Amino acid sequence: MRSDLTSGLRLASMSAAVLVLGLTAAGCSGGTDEPRAARPTFSPPTITTTPAPQSADGLSLPLEAYFLTPDQTRTVARAQNMLISDCMRRFGFSYPVNANGGSELSPVKEVLRPLFLTESKAARWGYHATTERRAQINQGQAGTAPKLSPAAQAVLTGTAKSHGGQDVPKGGCFAHGRDSIESGAAKVKLPPWMKGADDDKPPPGAAPAMRSARADPGYLPQSMLNGAFDLALSDPRTKQADAGWSACMKQSGYAYASVDAILRDGRWAASDVPSAPEIATAVTDARCRVKVKYGGLMYALQLGYQKAMIDMYADSLNQVKQANEAMVRNATKVLSGNAAD
Q1: Helices (H), the chain
Q2: 1 is a domain residue
């Protein structure tokens, strides 16, 4: 990865535990004409004083309580992979268990981190990932699924009903591992506006192991995390801050309408190392962000919008917590050898 600042702005709707395994099922609605309930509206939160933190270090947001921690994510991923590996072995296939995959940053930190840019970081790295960040990215990618033969893939995903005279579990070895880890985790009740008639169905022609993204316990908090970010981004106070930031940038000859726009500039990914123009742009950007307190404002707005969302969906989020606890409990048993395969 050449540039990393855009990675936290739009997160996938699957939980980190599933992303680590590399076999996801982000299914789509089947195209039903059934109308959905109207999306709720949230009043802009009151902010009396805009904070001015210099980085995302030490910052948190309320929704963080409804995600697995990075350590828990690795625990769940490793246990699930162990179950998958054991299942695959019964059919004569090898499936490696990765012990270290998974990001060191929570989904909340991934959202907050790109909002802040220090002059020192900008002067050294521009918009490129630091050495530390590259290590985090590499670790997060370390748990992707291995390349398998067609026969092994069929057993993994459940496309094959049997192999070598043995019946393949419904949904394959992947579903066997996933469902074992999620045993006892109640299905999260999604808000009506997020759910259509076909939302619980996998995409047409999908392997039996696949399911709708909405079936994942992390779907609701991840959707709310993304939603709160979008609400903060479109808040009139952010628009005002963007205007001040844009005017500041223009004084140095840079024409960008918003911080979001500069983070999405594709030129930063054009090379493996930051160019002199990139560094100059980033340094000016860092100074202008501090001037308008951009990171602190976006943080405060997300804080307010998330609190409103949590109040509205407290019951469903408590189900998410219970599901997370069940997964961690099951995974811990698997890793300690106290769970039956």
Answers
A1: 16-21, 70-90, 107-112, 119-125, 131-141, 150-157, 172-181, 219-234, 236-250, 259-263, 276-292, 294-312, 314-336
A2: no
